[in-house]
Amino acid sequence: MSQGPVGTSDVVVVGGGAAGLSLAYRLVETGVATVTVVEPPDGPARPAERTWCYWDQGDDDFGEAVTATWPLLRVHGPDGSPLTVDPAPSRYRMVRSSAFERLVHARLARAPGGRLLRATADTVRDVPGGAEVRCTAPDGRTLTLRSRHVFDSRPLRALPPARTQLLQHFRGWFVRTRGDRFDPAVADLMDFRVPQPRHGLAFGYVLPLAPDRALVEYTEFSRASLTTEAYEAALGHYAREVLRLGEFGVETAEQGVIPMTDARFPRRAGAAVFRIGTAGGATRPATGYTFAAVQRHSRAIAAALQRGRVTVPAPHGRRALAMDAVLLRALDTGRIDGPEFFTGLFRRTPAQRLLRFLDGATSLREEWGIGLRTPVGPMLRTALEVPFLPRRTHPAPGTGESHP
């Protein structure tokens, strides 16, 4: 069963994850373009609920979708010593994908130029005057959408060649404890009081939702992900032996993997087809953070369309990517000790400046100052080596947008 063209709009966004929905929200909110968002129908093709975290100042556009915020951040060094920092005026925020979807879907429904289509995108291609997306509806019909531009956020089947590729992979439990075990004002970003793998680094991650509820995660930066059984064992050890939570129950779990790579992600897949999100290089290579970069990128795309430009700006600057390539290589070779490195960054750098650095928003002078507080010898050796390393193909991980 097939059907001819069923709709036109200025923009078609393929994929309803953080990147696709953020761009659609920005376009309809500013009135820059009419938008159709193509999301998979309910079923196995739709991803499980995810958690996205970011830091922001004051009120932001997604306040009603924010599950929790934390004014303070904490890091536990490998020796167990805690370091608590105040990143004011920024606060760390959590958004659950279901709440974010409801927010953006409601905005699309209210906007004269907004539309949500539940269908499976099969092909995306250039056509005269724009681009075409052919979809399969839940009832089996073939639907064709035409637009001036298509922004595709679907994961790549294979990652581009890279000099270095690590994975940020994790499993988390939403736990409820018998007694009050958490401080709702403090988010533990990195807790290195866990056994370290032979290659890479591992840390705990705790986001309190109430004195007796929190998201507790075990995360690794390494070359390969673990089995679910291995994550469960690591989480159990962290919750019981390190955090000493006592009696607790697991309400739900989440698991994911994010590529950390210095690959060059092509932002253009055709004359009128562009890639966004992780597929377009929005994930920060050395940290895995994506959500904040997606917001900046969405604003930049909306501004470009408003000016009538058909090029999409890069989600990250060249300088930030060059620094990340060096850090990834230094971590991958073991030239720097990951837990000591990240703990040192938080200990020696003002919190607000460090967050701007992790977001790629610092000046060259600020970055130079931060660089002098890192292991200069190993980092300099790596910086001299990286430009001469060959790029090669690495296995593509199953991608999962989560807290970064």
TrEMBL record:
GO function term, MF aspect, one: isomerase activity
Domain of life: Bacteria
Alphabetized UniProt keyword annotations: Isomerase
Known EC number: 5.5.1.19
Pfam family for this entry, one: Lycopene_cycl
Top class in the EC scheme: isomerase
InterPro entries reported in the protein's UniProt record: FAD/NAD-bd_sf
Protein name, UniProt field: Lycopene beta-cyclase
Biological classification of the source: Bacteria, Bacillati, Actinomycetota, Actinomycetes, Kitasatosporales
